[in-house]
Write a structure and sequence with these properties.
Blueprint lengths: L3 H13 L2 H29 L3 E7 L14 E6 L4 H9 L5 E5 L12 E4 L6 H22 L4 H7 L7 E2 L5 E2 L1 H38 L2 H5 L5 H37 L9 H11 L2 H15 L3 H29 L7 H22 L6 H6 L6 H8 L6 H29 L9 H9 L1
Parallel strand pairs: 1-2, 1-3
Antiparallel strand pairs: 3-4, 5-6
Helix pairs in contact: 1-8, 2-8, 6-8, 6-10, 6-11, 6-12, 6-14, 8-11, 8-15, 11-14, 11-15, 12-14, 15-16
Length: 437
């Protein structure tokens, strides 16, 4: 008799009815959104802070470039020594003193521009000052040498290489970025899902083994059915939890904005200001429009179907490893010696995807690892947005499914023996013996 549906139902209901599962399902997004709301609130407080920078420009060349803004005020000093200026600023609550020496050279400003402050300023603040000063001093240097800056600006030519395949399909750099984001997000999501819910399966097997409940269950159920039921049931519970997190997260975002007056869009105020300024640039708007067109030009149907199939196949493959490890040990401490061979292929897949697929998605290394079942779920998901032939996707998926079937068969043998073994820490040699039984 096939008890698999009953086992799946039992595993699923056991998980979703567990008090700790219920508490963490609802408490985790509340804690997470609470942290986000706190950061957003602190960002809003920081937004109201006005920085006061005192400028002592002994040259008089650049002081006119410092204009007051909503969050930045400049106090320009004139006819004052550096020591008096430092003493004046030190006695106030200003951000600091920017000193531009009289010896500043438009050819070399090294060690002639300094910033004095009570506390170390942020990297972004100093970088912005350096960028603005470099631009102004460069222009002054060009004028001093008799160079017409307006002519230089008018002579600049923007190069945007049009990319088109021999079949007439047009692409661009924006297309590559969109494809990279989609592939990277898919691979990373699979990686995290395997780590989180694979460990849940392993702990579930260990708990039943240590409580001796497994001895009663195994008397009427085949080990492979029990293992598959545990994998599928726990996976469904994980998906349920994930969906609840998404729904509850969206509700909490709305409630936080309504009742606490926290605007979640102000989470990164400086970055948001940069984005707002960039949106006013016609070229930036054109690039955003190109990005939208690039997204909708992706083979979305192929991407969605491939994502579902490779996601499920990769998760089931690694879940069988986790279940076998849970059956082989008596506690989580003993699992460490077996975790490295499982984690390493996943880490390798992520590194291959990040450092190889980005550079050459159709290269030899990317192609080979997209067919190896232990790495193909991540690498192939990263390659597909760049255009992978359908036959390669099918072959990779068939290899993944075939490897899963073989892995489940071997894992079931370990599971069959391991769930009844107590008080002994197994070695790899003993696991091989269990497979031969």
């Amino acid at each position: 008799m096939n008890h698999l549906p009953l086992i799946i139902k039992r595993e699923y209901l056991t998980k979703v009815r567990n008090k700790s599962f219920i508490i963490m399902t609802f408490l985790s997004p509340i804690i997470f959104m609470g942290l986000i709301a706190l950061v957003a609130y602190l960002s809003q407080l920081n937004k109201d802070k006005i920085r006061v920078v005192t400028v002592l420009d002994e040259t008089g060349l650049v002081q006119d470039m410092f204009k007051n803004t909503e969050h930045m005020h400049y106090n320009i000093l004139e006819h004052m020594s550096l020591q008096d200026a430092k003493k004046l600023v030190n006695e106030t609550d200003g951000t600091g003193l920017l000193h531009i020496s009289l010896n500043v050279s438009t050819e070399d400003d090294e060690n002639t521009i300094s910033f004095y402050s009570k506390e170390a300023p942020s990297l972004g603040f100093i970088t912005d000052l350096e960028r603005r000063l470099e631009k102004r001093l460069t222009n002054l240097n060009l004028k001093r040498k008799g160079v017409d800056i307006d002519m230089i600006n008018a002579s600049k030519i923007r190069v945007d290489i049009l990319q088109e395949s021999f079949e007439g399909e047009k692409t661009s750099k924006v297309d590559s970025v969109i494809k990279l984001i989609f592939g990277g997000a898919a691979g990373y999501l699979l990686f995290m899902f395997i780590i989180i819910y694979g460990n849940m399966i392993m702990r579930s097997v260990i708990e039943e083994k240590t409580s001796r409940i497994i001895e009663v269950i195994i008397s009427s159920v085949k080990p492979i059915q029990l293992m598959l039921g545990k994998i599928i049931g726990t996976s469904l519970a994980g998906i349920t939890q994930f969906v609840i997190w998404l729904i509850l997260g969206g509700v909490l975002v709305s409630l936080t904005s309504i009742f606490f007056g926290v605007d979640m869009t102000e989470l990164q105020t400086p970055q948001r200001e940069i984005v707002n300024q960039a949106m006013e640039n016609p070229e930036i708007n054109a690039q955003i429009q190109n990005a939208a067109n690039a997204f909708f030009s992706l083979p979305l149907v192929n991407l969605v179907i491939a994502f579902i199939l490779f996601f499920i196949g990769g998760y089931l493959l690694y879940s069988s490893f986790y279940a076998a490890i849970g059956a082989a040990v008596d506690n989580e401490t003993d699992t460490q010696q077996f975790m490295m061979p499982i984690i390493m292929p996943l880490v390798l897949a992520v590194y291959i995807g990040v450092f190889t697929v980005i550079e050459d998605p159709h290269g030899t290394v990317s192609t080979i690892f997209s067919f190896i079942p232990l790495t193909s779920p991540v690498v192939m998901l990263m390659r597909i947005p760049f255009g992978v032939p359908l036959w390669q996707q099918i072959v990779s998926l068939l290899l993944l499914i075939g490897t899963f079937i073989v892995t489940v068969w071997f894992a079931a043998k370990i599971y069959r023996v391991g769930i009844l073994m107590y008080g002994k820490k197994p070695s790899y040699k003993e696991l091989i013996k269990w497979i031969k039984y």
